[in-house]
User: Which sequence fits this backbone?
């Protein structure tokens, strides 16, 4: 093995400056792939950590003897939600909440760092007067994200706030309890679960083209390597020796690229923590999936690159003379396209029933998305070969003829250049139809900023009078209205009940409204006066996060695509430098070679990019709520940026083409 490594290292160095440039391109491709793969894994880990940090606030009924009572409510200040967790110990075995040294005593309050600062910065009648004085600061384990507003209040078991039902159906997962508990739950809320589901879908959309790019990285400068290894086979090297040399060379380059990718991700982490999702940024530690996972990625990437490199050696091992003579490989089989058609037909058959599968629908969707990426990548070279034949038959000039012959000669290499953008087309098409769902909030008032308290009809008038007394002199108006409401709008047979709504309209904007909230604090134990705008905060936040996530996925996919186009394009010039040199010796102008090089990228890009985009639209159709301006804008931006990015990446190879044809005399590798 040391001899094999030494020979692989000598072959790497012996390729000269251009050979080392090819290896550097492979290293760069592996580095980008590793960095983005760590980003996808780290993002999933971060959402899992957030889910665990959120879980303890949503009480679950004790399975054994209860030790404490927990309740959750959500207050608001400046339009930002404040998670208020009320805790009361039933005995000395009450569980210690996350981020706290002990269970809170009655009257004791612990605040998050951001809420503590805000309580000091704002006048007391806007915020601090609502809660007991802070006795300590919550640790990071109690927080979903930096800057979150959270307060934990200790109460006595007989406190009215711990005995009155908070009617959790009023506002989705912003209120709960009181519930007798024996431990704090570890399963996150359904909202945090929804974010994890969306991240899983985003990961497939990012990782699938990333793996394709990583596989392509292993085959960069494949023609130069095949000719070199074929020469070794012809002078007596055994197939095992050829495979060992290839694995050693690929693994050496990929290992260096994986380490570079790790450093790239580490350098990007300080910027990633500022991406706003679900109300805030990230703890840097959450974006790192753990040392074992990181080491696993660093070990897996070189192995996968080595396997991918060995897969391409069949021609060298079986027919080294054919490689040395540069014979055209046999045509690809149409079964590649058949696999894609089969996936499309299968998805069309099950898409109508996806929404009725519940949680299983996510698994089915993820499987079909992965199969779509796989089969698009499988069918790509076959379609490129078909495009090459059509291009040759319809060519009316030397540049078009050369482009068609190159596509027909090596469709796999041509596909590797455009695969990134083509697969990004699938992502753009899939995201374009996924418009935001409508808001689910119930509008009981005309003014979205008017505060409301939902009560039994028999208590509404009494509470309204108390509210008028507390708000005397503020200019606020208090009204009472009785409305019908469903106990559970999502239930098959919802029960219609009546409730009294006390509406408080406060003139003057955010500051007077916050003062009114403070004045009304504790008016109805366990209830917080909220507005329709408050209840829309989480819905609007989710919609904004969907847009942010879609843009992030598109950006990552586009980064993969443009990087892939630039690196594979430069690698293709290095692979064909002898061909370009002979064409220049035969009198072919450099401009013709450059136009042919561009056309062999843009022609398959237009066909495969458009086809992938339509495939993405097809997969998103069952979940679409319409095709509006944002979706159309997404597609237009993708088409313009995709072609512009590939043209820009292609332009970077022009100086390299000029360099390899400046001295067209044949040179040994």
Assistant:
């Amino acid at each position: 093995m040391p001899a094999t490594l030494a020979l692989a290292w000598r072959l790497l160095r012996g390729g000269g400056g251009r050979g080392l440039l090819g290896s550097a391109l492979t290293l760069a491709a592996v580095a980008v792939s590793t960095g983005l793969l760590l980003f996808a894994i780290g993002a999933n880990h971060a959402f899992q950590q957030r889910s665990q940090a959120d879980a303890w606030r949503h009480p679950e009924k004790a399975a054994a003897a209860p030790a404490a009572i927990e309740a959750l409510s959500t207050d608001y200040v400046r339009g930002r939600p404040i998670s208020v967790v009320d805790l009361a110990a039933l005995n000395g075995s009450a569980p210690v909440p996350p981020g706290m040294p002990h269970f809170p005593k009655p009257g004791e309050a612990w605040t998050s760092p951001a809420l503590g600062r805000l309580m000091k910065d704002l006048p007391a009648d806007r915020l601090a007067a609502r809660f007991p004085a802070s006795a300590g600061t919550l640790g990071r384990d109690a927080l979903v994200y930096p800057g979150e507003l959270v307060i934990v209040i200790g109460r006595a078991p007989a406190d009215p706030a711990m005995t009155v039902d908070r009617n959790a159906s009023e506002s989705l997962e912003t209120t709960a309890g009181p519930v007798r508990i024996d431990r704090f739950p570890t399963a996150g809320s359904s909202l945090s679960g929804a974010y994890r589901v969306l991240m899983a879908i985003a990961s497939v959309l990012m990782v699938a083209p990333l793996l394709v790019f990583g596989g392509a990285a292993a085959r960069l400068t494949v023609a130069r390597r095949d000719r070199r290894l074929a020469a070794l086979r012809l002078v007596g090297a055994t197939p095992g020796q050829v495979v060992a040399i290839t694995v050693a060379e690929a693994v050496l380059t990929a290992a260096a690229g994986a380490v570079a990718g790790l450093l790239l991700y580490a350098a990007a982490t300080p910027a990633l923590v500022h991406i706003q999702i679900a109300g805030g940024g990230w703890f840097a530690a959450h974006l790192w999936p753990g040392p074992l996972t990181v080491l696993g990625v660093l070990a897996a990437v070189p192995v996968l690159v080595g396997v991918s490199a060995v897969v391409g050696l069949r021609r060298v091992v079986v027919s080294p003379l054919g490689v040395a003579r540069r014979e055209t490989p046999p045509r690809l089989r149409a079964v590649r396209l058949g696999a894609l058609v089969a996936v499309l037909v299968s998805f069309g058959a099950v898409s109508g029933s996806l929404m009725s599968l519940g949680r299983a629908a996510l698994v089915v969707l993820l499987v079909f998305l992965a199969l779509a990426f796989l089969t698009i990548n499988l069918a790509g070279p076959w379609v490129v070969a078909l495009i090459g034949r059509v291009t040759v038959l319809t060519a009316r000039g030397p540049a078009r003829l050369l482009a068609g012959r190159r596509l027909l000669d090596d469709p796999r290499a041509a596909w590797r250049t455009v695969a990134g953008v083509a697969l990004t087309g699938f992502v753009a098409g899939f995201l374009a139809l996924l418009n935001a769902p409508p808001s689910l909030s119930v509008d009981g008032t005309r003014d979205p900023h008017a505060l409301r308290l939902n009560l039994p009809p028999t208590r509404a008038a009494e509470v309204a009078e108390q509210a008028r007394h507390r708000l005397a002199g503020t200019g606020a108006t208090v009204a009472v209205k009785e409305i019908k409401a469903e106990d559970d709008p999502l239930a098959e047979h919802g029960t219609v009940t009546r409730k009294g709504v006390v509406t408080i309209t406060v003139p003057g904007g955010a500051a007077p409204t916050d003062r009114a909230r403070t004045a009304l604090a504790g008016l109805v134990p366990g209830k917080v006066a909220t507005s329709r705008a408050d209840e829309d905060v989480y819905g609007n936040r989710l919609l904004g996060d969907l847009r942010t996530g879609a843009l992030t996925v598109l950006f990552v996919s586009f980064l993969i695509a443009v990087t892939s186009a630039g690196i594979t394009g430069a690698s293709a010039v290095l692979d064909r430098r002898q061909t370009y040199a002979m064409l220049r010796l035969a009198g072919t102008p450099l401009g013709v070679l450059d136009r042919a090089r561009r056309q062999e990228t843009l022609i398959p890009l237009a066909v495969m990019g458009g086809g992938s985009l339509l495939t993405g639209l097809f997969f998103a159709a069952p979940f679409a709520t319409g095709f509006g301006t944002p979706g159309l804008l997404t597609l237009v931006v993708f088409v313009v940026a995709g072609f512009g990015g590939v043209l820009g990446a292609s332009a970077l190879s022009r100086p390299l083409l000029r360099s390899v044809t400046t001295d067209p005399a044949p040179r040994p590798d």
Observations:
- The first strand starts at residue 68 and ends at 77.
- The CA atoms of residues 225 and 246 lie 9 Å apart.
